[in-house]
Design goal:
Helix content: 10-25%
Distance between the termini: 73 Å
CATH architecture of one domain: 4-Layer Sandwich
CATH topology of one domain: Metallo-beta-lactamase, Chain A
Strand content: 15-25%
CATH class of one domain: Alpha Beta
Structural class: alpha/beta
Number of helices: 8
CATH superfamily of one domain: Ribonuclease Z/Hydroxyacylglutathione hydrolase-like
Number of strands: 17
Length: 309
């Protein structure tokens, strides 16, 4: 009996030690919101796939701190892959398990965590910006930062070479512009230029089905607005544009953490961000010259304001 108690205590101690060694963000997983979604089985364990609307799959990467979400959106004639994630798992293999339609890639923007598997696909459309063209060349430094201590929850895929990991170059087959309409066959997506987070940030509106894909312009977590390419005035204009669409939208689908949000979040996002820009919210110091602003259920990570003499 004493041996049994000793074994039980050892197992509890081991489990507690393992839990304490996990990154803080990892301890929040699995996120409870996913329990209400239909999970679709795929062969690559790096991904979790959920059916979030008719012929729309959220392809979620819960094992890396970005918790990035790409979306496969299908019509009757072709499919659009909105982002390609980290490039750690085999996204093309997963996509081929989900659809037999021809697939075109379009990125919500070209930060490395959204273009990692672009290189796997032949047809890639991109915004006509210098930022897009620069990022299409690939990057090793940005990719390697995603593997730093505390960034991975669980194990990397078998055979993954972390030392060789980089965002591989890809070719832009065609440029897209604001208000372009992508016809997938009985499903049309309107491209909305929503710069701010990056110069090439876009959202997609599926008006007939009431779906708004917002990329990194909105997602239900701390919103990053500190990079050199970020334009705060452009970001405010973009979220105001999206908020104006809220009455036409049933579901907002962001690119990190949790795929579904109520459209009422959009006007509240505008109000919260305007409070920050008006200096009505205290800045909380973060590392590397950044500050966070927490207001009305939103959090923004931004560059520390410059002090004028």
């Amino acid at each position: 009996m004493a041996c049994g108690v000793m074994l039980s205590l050892t197992m509890v101690s081991s489990a507690a030690s393992e839990q304490s060694s996990l990154p803080e963000w990892c301890k929040a997983l699995p996120r409870p919101e996913y329990k209400s979604l239909e999970r679709v089985t795929v062969s690559d364990p790096w991904f979790e796939v959920y059916r979030v609307a008719q012929s729309v799959y959220a392809i979620y990467e819960p094992h890396q701190s970005e918790e990035v979400i790409s979306y496969l959106i299908s019509g009757t004639k072709q499919a659009l892959l909105f982002d390609t994630g980290m490039g750690i798992g085999d996204l093309k293999k997963v996509v081929l398990e989900l659809t037999h339609l021809p697939v075109t890639v379009l990125n919500s923007h070209t930060h490395n965590d959204h273009v990692g598997d672009n290189w796997q696909f032949q047809t890639i459309h991109g915004m006509d910006t210098d930022f897009t063209r620069q990022n299409a060349r690939g990057s090793r430094e940005s990719a390697q930062a995603e593997l730093e201590p505390g960034q991975i929850c669980g194990s990397l895929p078998a055979g993954f070479d972390s030392k060789a990991y980089s965002t591989k170059p890809w070719k832009i087959a065609r440029y897209v512009y604001d208000a372009d309409v992508i016809d997938l066959g009985e499903r049309k997506l309107r491209v909305l230029a929503t710069p701010g987070h990056t110069p090439d940030a876009i959202s997609l509106l599926d008006r007939a089905n009431g779906l708004l894909f917002t990329g990194d312009t909105y997602y239900p977590a701390r919103i990053w607005l500190f990079r050199p390419e970020t334009d705060l005035a452009a970001y405010e204009a973009s979220i105001r544009r999206l908020a104006a669409l809220a009455p036409q939208v049933k579901t907002v689908l962001g690119a990190h953490n949790i795929p579904l949000a109520d459209p009422s979040v959009l006007p509240r996002l505008v109000t919260a961000f305007q409070k920050v820009r008006a200096g009505k919210v205290a800045a909380l110091p973060e590392s590397d010259g950044k500050v966070s602003y927490n207001v009305d259920g939103f959090s923004f990570l931004m560059r520390a304001p410059e002090h004028k003499n």
